[in-house]
Specification:
The protein is of the alpha/beta class. The chain has helices at 3-25, 76-80, 117-122, 126-138, 146-155, 174-185, 207-215, 236-254, 270-278, 312-318; strands spanning 43-45, 48-50, 102-105, 107-108, 123-124, 142-144, 163-170, 190-194, 219-223, 260-262, 283-289, 301-305. It folds into two domains: 47-92, no CATH class; 102-318, TIM Barrel. The protein has ten helices and twelve strands. Helix 4 (126-138) packs parallel to helix 6. The chain binds zinc ion.
Length: 321
Amino acid sequence: MGRSLVRAWLCSLLALVLLACRVGLGTPAQPLAQLPTRQSRPSQAHGAVFSPSHGSAPPALPSCHIAHPATPLPTRATNRHGTPPGPPAQPSPAPWRTPVPILMYHYIRPMPGPTDPVGRDLTVTPAHFAQQLAYLASHGYHTITLKELSLARAHRYALPPHPVVLTFDDGYEDFYTTAWPLLRSRHFEATVFVITALIGHRGYLTWGQIRQLDRTGMVEIGSHTVNHLDLTVLSPAAARYQLVQSRLELASRLGHPVDSFSYPGGRFNSRVVELVREAGYRSAVTTLYGWATPRSNPLALPRVRIHGSTTLSDLAHLLPR
Ligand SMILES: [Zn+2]
């Protein structure tokens, strides 16, 4: 064979090797876009952790402190090295299971004189209130709003450890001037039930204060009807007006739906509960004693009343541990 023939044969061989290399090594790796989407990391906002399930992107987060446990997710390396991704991750909700105390407050103000026994019973002094908040903080309680409790039930969110709901009935101005600064200093949340016809009246919250509280994202504003009447003795039409009108006005002034309700005087029956449901509320609190559980009727939730005479020792016995 001539030298030129050998050179031509070597060139052909080299070309074949190069072609083989291109086919074997040059193929792009699996594009990342084809990896399972459930690798997306849990999102976090406003202290909430949300873990997607079924591989779907996390839905819009509620502004709350409800935590969902992070589901262990496959690593990217595992999948890129050929391990079958397996079935989609099963939702692993750790839903609300433990009892939740919903504390009921009215006034946070200096104690009235002995001629006002009702007022005294409804009053917790600022000093006692501060001590109660300190107790809750030091014993690991985490405040949530009533709306967050409702979301936990509906969406099977887990609750933070030792959850507690702090509610304030009637919408007294001292919530803004006295209770809220103490709550805010501890990053505590609260739910305030206002009587819409009394807003701006002497001793009651103003619309400006209510809007300001609402915009903090730490205070939920709920309805306590228009006129604080006993709904069980009103005609269906009159009761419906109290429920719907107050909800509409609050929603209009705040710019978002209002989901929580407190029965005036704690008075309710099955007919009133149905009207509350029809009016669009998702949660309603009573004055019946007890802790809320997942089995509680969300429109007839029990509460724990905090009296003017409630001591720290009493409070400790009123809370689940
Ligand atoms: Zn009331």
